[in-house]
Each structure stands twice: as structure tokens, then as C-alpha cells.
Design brief:
Elements: H1 2-25, H2 31-50, H3 57-74, E1 93-97, E2 102-106, H4 107-124, H5 129-138, H6 144-167, H7 174-197, H8 200-225
Antiparallel strand pairs: 1-2
Amino acid sequence: MHEASTTGQFILFCASFAGMLVFQKTKAVFWKLAIPVGVLVALSAFMGGYLSYLFDEVTLKIIFTVFLVIAGLAMLVPYAPERSEPALRRSGHISLSTGSSEVSVDLRVVIPVTVLTGFFSGMIGVSGGSFLVPMLVLACGLPMKTAVTTATPLVATSALMGFSGHFFQGHFIPYLGLPLAVITVVGGVLGGKYALKSKPKHLKRLFALTNIVAALLILVNLLSTLPT
């Protein structure tokens, strides 16, 4: 399990980094939000990877599966962020400019979700984008496409630090991880280009579908490993 998580984190980092380079060429990443959130993700993901040996993997996977479904369904609910009150006057909010408009960031949601996402992603060896994208849309009011492009460097950061935590425990298998990473870099580039060309509503539906499918696959895997 730990070797699989380590390999998964390494592959995720390579794919996300490739996608980030595609997005950066078009200046699609909202760095004013990505950098501070990325720091929280990095620290919590490293701790999750390093402390992974302390936790029962079945329990973690069940919790993760439930939240995957919730995150997927949340993206199917129509949502329009409130703009009536300036963020600076609202307790627990900060206002950030995207260039053409301002977004209200609810720190009461962003900070705990970011820390938990990084921790569990680093521990289990999965993409934190499953939770970071809904957070950026629902708690920060970012448009779907901007949320996807901004979440990409966050996923890369989470994956790198999660991988580092596992790596220091001696869980990495280079002859397996390196060839797979080369393949996923190609996928990251193609996926990044597709995201830039897609309509926001299509991205939301695709995101929800992949989350739910991933949850079902994890559930099937868990059931297959249970003693009969």
C-alpha cells in the first residue's frame, strides 16, 4: 500500500506540473491565491505522507470515498457567490483581485479544508484536486476554469510533498515510478490543453463524474480485499 501511494504521488506531481506549465503559458493560474494555499497544502501533505504508517488504510479509504462523493455532487449544484458585501468588512474573509474582478475568500472554510486535503492526499497517495477545486469554486468564488487552473499547482505541491514524506520512509520504487511518470506527463499536457478549451459547465460535469467514478473504484477495491 505505501509503495503504491508513493508511486501515485510521484506520478501525480509529474502530471500536475506538466499541466501547470500549460496553464502558465496563458497566465491562467491565480497565483495570489495559489501561493498561500500551496504552502498549507505542502506542509500538511508532507506530514500526511510521513505519518502514513500510523493509520489504518481501510478507515482512511472509507472516509476519503465519502468525501469524494460529496465533492462530486457539490459541483453539480448551481452556485453563485454572494457579492453584496465587501469581503474586507466580513469576518473571516479576505478580498483578492483577479485582474478583472474581486473574489471573496472565506478563510474559515479555506484553511481547514486545505490542511485536511493536503494531509489525507499525502497519506493516501491521491490527487487533492478532488477537494481543492470545489473549495476554490464554493469558498473562494472562482470561476470553474480558473479553479481548475489554480488547483493544478496546488495538486503538484501536495503530490511532491506527500511523495517526499513517503520517500523518507523508503517507500519509493524508481523502476516503476519513472516510466509511468513519463507517460503521465503527456497526459498532463493534453489534459491542460483540453481544460483551457472546454466550457465551464462541461468541466463541472466531468469533474463530478470522475470523482464519483473514483469513489466507486475505491469502494470496489475495498470490498474485494475484505475477508470472506
